[in-house]
Amino acid sequence: DADVTQTPRNRITKTGKRIMLECSQTKGHDRMYWYRQDPGLGLQLIYYSFDVKDINKGEISDGYSVSRQAQAKFSLSLESAIPNQTALYFCATSDTRDFTDTQYFGPGTRLTVL
Amino acid sequence: AQSVTQPDIHITVSEGASLELRCNYSYGATPYLFWYVQSPGQGLQLLLKYFSGDTLVQGIKGFEAEFKRSQSSFNLRKPSVHWSDAAEYFCAVINRDNYGQNFVFGPGTRLSVLP
């Protein structure tokens, strides 16, 4: 079984709809991250959480919100989806005890907003 | 501002040929450096990382990378490419002297392999 899972893997929705992407991990890591990937731009950080009570904005947080329901679960919401939020979304985790802060990624969710 | 550049958007090599993917970063302090690979339809898999010590780092799948402080570079190499290496490769950097600093990713280099 994968250590970092994301649901759904693919989603097509319409402008204005509320969407939630979910991430779960069995690695026992305390840190979790949400990124979006657009062609030619690499990965951009949306939100990150260093523990259950700690939520921080990344470089492109506008239009997104997150919830850290438990150490193992970190959800990303698009309150009112718009077409330019069409992208590939990745969840990642890392361990505070790892001084290199190596991140481990889920398989991604492909979101299309029509 | 911290940045990571990968000058080559797309590289094509023949199977069996050698490969070098370039990565340059701009930081004041010594960073931690990473290479990830993303196969089609997959997430990112860690190939290797550098944090201290020997500047030549060995990774999985026969890849290696060399950290050159004077050139602010961390280039990825493989002596003989296999068709299964076709993928997108991302360089990433984190500033270890800045607690809470997050990864900065380069834009990626797409590798195509000719039979």
Describe the structure concisely.
With 114 residues, chain A is an all-beta fold. Helices cover 0% and strands 56% of the residues of chain A. Chain A has no helices and eleven strands.
Helix segment tally of chain B = 0
Helix and strand content put the structural class of chain A at mainly beta
Shape of chain B: globular
Query: Total strand count of chain B, please?
Result: 12
Q: Can you give the helix content of chain B as a percent range? A: under 10%
How many helices of chain A? The count is 0
Mean pLDDT of chain B: 90
From N to C, what is the helix and strand string of chain A?
A: EEEEEEEEEEE
pLDDT < 50 stretches of chain B: none
Oligomer: heterodimer
Percent range for β-strand residues of chain B: over 45%
- Overall radius of gyration of chain A: 13 Å
Radius of gyration of chain B: 14 Å
End-to-end Cα distance of chain A, whole Å, is 33 Å
Q: Kindly report how far apart the N and C termini of chain B lie.
A: 41 Å
Proportion of beta-strand residues of chain A: over 45%
**SSE-based structural type of chain B:** mainly beta
